[in-house]
Amino acid sequence: MRIGELAAAAQVSVRALRYYEEQGLLTSERSPSGQRRYPGSAVDRVRLIQQLYAAGLPSRAIVDLLPCVVDGRATPELLARLAVERDRIDGRVAELTVARDRLDSVIDGATSNLRTGRSCRDVAAADPAATETSAGGPAGSRRPPRTP
Among residues 89, 75, 128, 88, which one has the least CA distance to residue 105? Predict the structure, then answer.
C-alpha cells in the first residue's frame, strides 16, 4: 500500500509515517518511481508505535523494543527494560485512576449541588480522596504541591 493509504488506514498523518521511517521504526520499499510501498502488516505496526508513544516511550526506546514486541526476539537486558517500562506505565495508570476517581467525585458532587445548593468546595472537603491529594497528588506525582 502507498503512504497515503497507510496513513488513512492507521489514522495518522503522512508526516508521522515519514518520521517513523527516519527514526527506524517503520520500513518501506520503493517503487521504480520512488514511491514508498508498505505491506498490509504496517497498519498494525503503526498502531503499536502510536500506543507506545502514547504510553510515554521515546522513539529510541521503541526502536529497541520493537523486535521483542513484534517478533518475540529478546535478550535479558531487553526484558528488563520492558519490565521497567511496564512498571512505569502501571504507576501512571494508578495516577490516572486517582485523577478519574476525583473527577467522578466532582461530577457527582456538582450534580448533587444542583439539587442541594452546596458548593464544589464543600464536596471536595468531604471527599476522603481530597485529603490524600491535597499536598500535590498521590505518591510519585510529578505535579508540585499547590500553594494557597
Answer: 128
Q: How far apart are CA 88 and CA 82, in angstroms?
A: 10
Residues 6+ apart with CB under 8 A from 34: none
| Cα distances (angstroms) measured from residue 63 to each of 24, 29, 58, 60, 122 | 7, 19, 9, 5, 49
- Contact between 25 and 62 (Cβ < 8 Å): yes
pLDDT digits (tens, 9 = 90+) for 94-143: 999 999 999 999 888 888 777 776 666 665 566 555 544 444 444 444 44
Query: What are residue 37's phi and psi, to 5 degrees?
Result: -130, 130
